[in-house]
Amino acid sequence: MEDVPSLVAQAREGRPRAVARLISLVEGASPQLREVMAALAPLTGNAYVVGLTGSPGVGKSTSTSALVTAYRRQGRRVGVLAVDPSSPFSGGALLGDRVRMSDHASDPGVYIRSMATRGHLGGLAWSAPQAIRVLDAAGCEVILVETVGVGQSEVEIASQADTSVVLLAPGMGDGIQAAKAGILEIGDVYVVNKADRDGADATARELNHMLGLGESRRPGDWRPPIVKTVASRAEGVDEVVEALEKHRAWMEEHGVLTERRRARAAHEVETIAVTTLRRRIGDLRGDRRLGALAERIVAGELDAHRAADELIAGLTGS
Amino acid sequence: MEDVPSLVAQAREGRPRAVARLISLVEGASPQLREVMAALAPLTGNAYVVGLTGSPGVGKSTSTSALVTAYRRQGRRVGVLAVDPSSPFSGGALLGDRVRMSDHASDPGVYIRSMATRGHLGGLAWSAPQAIRVLDAAGCEVILVETVGVGQSEVEIASQADTSVVLLAPGMGDGIQAAKAGILEIGDVYVVNKADRDGADATARELNHMLGLGESRRPGDWRPPIVKTVASRAEGVDEVVEALEKHRAWMEEHGVLTERRRARAAHEVETIAVTTLRRRIGDLRGDRRLGALAERIVAGELDAHRAADELIAGLTGS
Asked: Which molecular function GO terms apply here (chains A, B) (predicted)?
């Protein structure tokens, strides 16, 4: 068993191993998970969580790296959670381990964590928010959550950020692909990366059209900006940071930040509750109660719905 | 609202519209679902449920049709539940509506029902067993459940039958594909269809090897037979029926049939319980209780796990 209070204290001092250990405890649903989460609860709520999503090849990792550099110049502590299986950060990497993000590997103000997209109890919807809480409690002021914009759970995670950045790159049909993946609906800030390539202006125009950004909005509504970048040369990255800060300020002004964080917390509670109930029901396999109900169903004495009622009633409290 | 007792009575008399209506009520989770299931419970448990699964192109629909013919010659009432989206029975068809199975379309002793693989509350794991109960209560003595052997829920349904038939066809790599799809573990009877083609013997040998059928087994163990068929010409189909009857007799002799039906009922109860709890949690979205919990989490006063406990305690009693 780990000494959780000591791990938490070390994580708050900026010790990467302690952060890594805590994330492993929460994502693996260890017996100490609840102890860790209870210890972290009063320490969280300070980080600004930015989701970055986009199809493979748009330059998500390069953009994430450039944003880390920009935030580090401001002296902010940054956490990166990469839930993209194709990301160079992938493979259980923390702080330079198998990480190509060499600019940041030796920077003690940056935490990098990758997360496999499969295999966790309850999946990403369960493990990502808890890893974010660890990074938050460890003192990261900005947390960049990089997800590939393919797959419902990845899009869901991105949409659960304080601010969601959707990345695109010039090229025929890219906008259509983004729309298909459902990521066009979730952007607070849009980035057309690789803007030195042909078609960048066309992509931005197409995006502007698809988003209906030309249409009138109610006063006070957020109008998602479209920023053009060449992340590999850090061009336009300061403008992205500026757009993020504007969105954050707008959210704070309109009470949206608290609203989003409550929605995220509610979603997290739901996920944990469903996973817990599923596990409890799973524990009943081979249990006498479920076996007895099944026997009565086969005998035609009971239908499956009334049996499910009895099963649910038996789950109470425990 | 439907008159459920009248629908049930009509279904027992063999009226196809009543059967169709009842299936729609149970798969769509109508408000009358529970009334229907309660009315059906004492009438079920007589049908012999046979699952047929295999990769696309092995001739599942042709084999199903040939089995229907064989069982009809014995004077048995037959139900077909096709949960294969690529099946010719697909598209909400009942009794000839958009069905190419023209041999049986006008036969009042055959019910054919297709089931979409998506869109139902709780998915196939929820709707298929309930549709089977309707066909069972309607007096079908044999129910053939045709599923494409791709995708976890499809394989799961096939494995929940009294007897599972796995179909293959000659061709390189077919066995490997079957193994990958996880369908090799679930077969009680194996059929190599299209046995007039080159490689049928090789496929049967490969299958025999992969299944370890040459190895010794405990006395009384079931040894899955491999039957070669040309379903389009009805060749070998009587042998399949014979193998099914042998398996049924073996199951009855060894208490396996009751055991399997209890396992199926237990699985059904679990699925209904999980779906019900999920829905109840979903109903809490925007609910004051969940909102209040989320507020306390954002304030750092509570962690998501303790919040989930409170949510669960509030759910399971109602």
From this structure: GTP binding; GTPase activity
